[in-house]
Amino acid sequence: MSLFITDECINCDVCEPECPNDAIYQGDEIYEINPSLCTQCIGHYDEPQCQQVCPVDCILIDEVHPETEEQLQAKYEKLQADKN
């Protein structure tokens, strides 16, 4: 599943540069995550980097966009292929 940022976000700017897929962006009020780009860092890291740096723990699993690890891996591979 992709991740999402709750309204507890304090706009501290630490998550956006950590995302290897550029899935995190500044929304109207808080940072947001594009679910079509989020792989939970599968293919890049063992753990989602945004969750590791978030000081308020407001980045959670997005139950609205369920995906298996295999689907996240396939998304990662497609994103990498699209870069070339």
From TrEMBL:
Residue ranges of the TM segments: none
Protein name per Swiss-Prot or TrEMBL: YfhL family 4Fe-4S dicluster ferredoxin
SUPFAM superfamilies the record matches: 4Fe-4S ferredoxins
Gene3D superfamilies: 3.30.70.20
Coiled coil: none
Domain 4Fe-4S ferredoxin-type: 1-29
Domain of life: Bacteria
Keyword line: 4Fe-4S, Iron, Iron-sulfur, Metal-binding
InterPro entries xref list: 4Fe4S_Fe-S-bd (IPR017896), 4Fe4S_Fe_S_CS (IPR017900), PSI_iron-sulfur_center (IPR050157), YfhL-like (IPR047927)
